[in-house]
Amino acid sequence: MNDISRERSSELFEKAQRFFPGGVNSPVRAFKSVYGTPLFIEKGDGCFLWDADGNKFIDFCCSWGPLILGHNHPSVRENVIDAVEKGMSFGAPTALENELAELILTHNRKVEKIRFVSSGTEAVMSAIRLARGYTKRDKILKFEGCYHGHVDSMLVKAGSGLVTFGETSSAGVPKSFADETIVIPLNDRGAVEQAFKQFPDQIAAIIIEGVPANNGLLIQNKEYIQFLRELSTANRSLLIFDEVITGFRLGFEGAAGYYDIQPDITTYGKIIGGGMPVGAYGASAEIMSNISPEGAVYQAGTLSGNPVAMAAGIGQLSELLRPGFYKELNEKTAAFVASVQQYAADKEYQLTVFSIGSLFWFAFTDRNIQKAEDIDPLSMDKFKIFHRELLNRGIYLGPSGYEVGFISSAHTVDTLENAKRAIFESLDVVYS
Ligand code: PMP
After folding, report:
1. For the segment 310-364, what is each residue's pLDDT rounded down to a tens digit?
2. N or C: which end of the chain has fewer CB within 10 A?
3. Any residues with Cβ below 6 Å from ligand 1, and which?
4. Does 113 qualify as catalytic in the annotation?
């Protein structure tokens, strides 16, 4: 099949390279690990995207997760327009912040108080500072394969060995910062026990993604998450759930609700802002009382609680509270995933579609994968072909085989049928 036209996108990309490092404002957008230059998007509506060359796609990236209602949902758009007409930012409290907080706190039992920030990274950075301030300890235990934004101390990868000090995975992160981060593999109880033994009374918190979804979809067993909960409590460390992806995605209470586990601190982003730049962190009233101006842990933001962003969040979260919203979305996803899996099985293709809630990940393997190290980097060659074939058939997936796909309520059953056909044909090419 012929490649889609990218004339206009290529021109725009050329120009963008004069302005931005790598031509983009966030690295994964640069299409480095797939074919071609990035598509410049002109418009989104429902579950569809149009690029600058007029190509139309079914969108499974959904802005990397925020758009659980699809693009341009009237409830979000109308709220935003109303808010914009009254002014964009005041740097003073507004009733909209109360309204969004009330919506969250009355329907999500996992947090008692919340603080709004402007991104997921900011939420995680603040949650870590809070954990350190609260416990008066410095070290943070994180898992290889979990991404928590570009917070200095989180840009670390595992060294060799079961329990390691982090090694920086980005230039510009001082080694002394990485030394405060301990990195261990997922799904390995011994490694967690060993870490607490090796660093007694030093670990402020364990941080884990609600469901690790940034390095493939590494679904952990509930018992393991429960074990992390128990071990952190026994060691007077906090458990931080980074729910930037899973919050309001696996249900209104996110992964914490899904697993029925109470984290000490929770971070949110993406969905909470309806497509506007919003993040948040929340915890018990007692833990949150440590945040300034009530407590000694400083955290602030000129645009925090921005009225336009709050209005978008209110519009989006109100829709999620409609009875049956998650059931319908999750069932639709499960049926879609099952068909693709069945097709691959019938054809004896080595493909496993990992999925939870309305998240999915195509892995070119027949093994169960629960750890970053179990992903074969060579399988990404197949993804590269798959991605190209999908684009040519009008399907937009994030441009990396390590990224998950998202289904929104705007993806109709008919559209998913069309998407399946394109996926089947693309798989046939990958395995031809
Ligand atoms: N935590 C998780 C789990 C994420 O998936 C992301 C972003 N993909 C972040 C934190 C960072 O959020 P942001 O990009 O809004 O800074």
Report:
1. 999 999 999 999 999 999 999 999 999 999 999 999 999 999 999 999 999 999 9
2. C
3. 64, 119-121, 124, 147-149, 209, 214, 242, 244-245, 269, 279
4. no
The closest of 178, 182, 224 to 203, measured between CA atoms, is 182
Which secondary-structure segment (H or E) carries 45? strand 41-45
What residues does each domain of the chain span? Answer: 7-72+324-430, 74-320
Residue pair 238/131 in contact by the 8 Å Cβ criterion: yes
Span 223-238, pLDDT tens digits: 999 999 999 999 999 9
Closest residue by Cα to atom 6, ligand 1, is 149
Q: Express as a percent the part of the chain with pLDDT over 90.
A: 97
Q: Does domain 74-320 have CATH number 1.10.285.10?
A: no
260 flagged as catalytic: no
Catalytic, out of 142, 270, 332, 371: 270
> CATH for 7-72+324-430, among 1.10.600.10, 3.90.1150.10, 3.30.70.3460, 3.30.300.160?
3.90.1150.10
Pocket test for ligand 1, best of 24, 148, 268 (most atoms within 8 A of CB): 148
Kindly state the DSSP code that residue 402 receives in the 8-state scheme: T
pLDDT-derived band at 160, boundaries 50, 70, 90:
low
The catalytically annotated residue of 51, 139, 142, 147 is 147
Look at residue 163 in the predicted model and tell me its pLDDT. Answer: 72
pTM: 0.97
Q: Closest residue (by CA) to atom 12 of ligand 1?
A: 120
Helix axes 325-346, 413-430, angle to 10 degrees: 30
Angle between helices 189-198 and 222-234 in degrees, nearest 10: 10
Q: Whose CA is nearest to atom 11 of ligand 1?
A: 149
